[in-house]
């Protein structure tokens, strides 16, 4: 199956139970089932503490994505707010996971 586009999944990690791993994994599974590739911090930064120094890695990954999808409570997370701000500077669409999953998506790249 060919991909409809690449999604950067952004959400809170620090201070969340189990670093919010289960929420990221569930969202990734659902997005991939809809035909999209997913880039997310847990896979990008395996065994690395997420901090200001990892921002370059996250921005680099973000730059090759078509859209950012946010998890609940992203607004309370410093790193998620940075990712969304950078995406908006790059004129990348940002959508919350609930809206994204309710929407019938065609190819993201044709929707931009």
Strand content: 5-15%
Largest sheet: 4 strands, parallel
Order of helices and strands: EHEHHEHEHH
Tell me the count of domains: 1
Which topology does CATH recognise?
Rossmann fold
Quickly give the CATH architecture. Answer: 3-Layer(aba) Sandwich
Taking the alpha carbons of the first and last residues, their distance comes to: 21 Å
Name of the CATH class = Alpha Beta
Q: Choose one word for the global shape.
A: globular
- Counted by DSSP, the helix tally is 6
Provide a concise account of the structure shown.
The chain is α/β, with parallel strands linked by helices and 112 residues long.
Any overview of this molecule?
The structure is a single chain. The protein is of the alpha/beta class. The protein has a single domain (6-107), classed as Hypothetical protein PA1492 (Rossmann fold). It has 6 helices and 4 strands. The chain has helices at 21-33, 41-44, 55-62, 78-89, 97-102, 108-111, and strands at 6-10, 37-39, 67-70, 94-96. The protein has a 4-stranded parallel β-sheet, sandwiched between helices. The longest helix is centred in the N-terminal third of the chain and has 13 residues, at 21-33. It starts with 5 loop residues before the first strand and ends with a helix.
């Amino acid at each position: 199956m060919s991909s409809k586009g690449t999604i950067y999944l952004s959400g809170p990690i620090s201070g969340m139970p189990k670093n919010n791993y289960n929420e990221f994994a569930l969202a990734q599974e659902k997005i991939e089932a809809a035909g999209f590739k997913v880039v997310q911090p847990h896979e990008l930064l395996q065994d690395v503490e997420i901090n200001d120094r990892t921002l370059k890695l996250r921005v680099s990954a973000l730059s090759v994505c078509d859209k950012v999808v946010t998890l609940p409570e992203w607004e309370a997370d410093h790193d998620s707010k940075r990712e969304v701000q950078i995406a908006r500077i790059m004129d990348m669409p940002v959508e919350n996971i609930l809206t994204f999953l309710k929407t019938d998506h065609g190819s993201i790249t044709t929707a931009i």
